[in-house]
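Hey, can you fold this one?
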Amino acid sequence: MRAGIGFGSNLGDRQANLRRARNHLRTLPCVQAIRASGPLYETSPVGCDASARDFLNTVVEVEISDDAAPERLLSALRHIETVLGRASRRPKNAARSIDLDILYLGETAIQTPTLVLPHPRLHQRRFVLAPLAAIRPDLVLPGQRLPVSELLQALDDPASVQLVAESW
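Sure. Predicted structure:
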């Protein structure tokens, strides 16, 4: 089963933070392979303090074992964030060395107190759709009618998104 993971960083060496997170992701028992890593985009912070630095964002798609429960994957991602210096208790939208979000998990559509899949704002965020469209332009997410590439084209999101690197 394929899972899309959103990566973001706006503290420290942002690109190194993303690389370290991707390396940790490879070591998870439920991750069988990294299928694709999207390009890196620099994006303006959304809902953050006015002094917040721009983010580097991308999407990584992994192949996970069929028995990997969404909550188990979420827990593993939170552990990676902790290892890479993100505090578990923090103000909402605080600057962060790493932010890892499950964007989708196959055709799974769930809503629990700790996890909503697919990510509830994925289709509204250019900084997620741009790197995702680069690796899976024809992906139709659960609950959507249009593929990711068309969602991106139709997006009315004023956020600044600038391509930084095709590969990282």
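The CA atoms of residues 75 and 137 lie 28 Å apart. Let me know if you want another pass with a different chain boundary.
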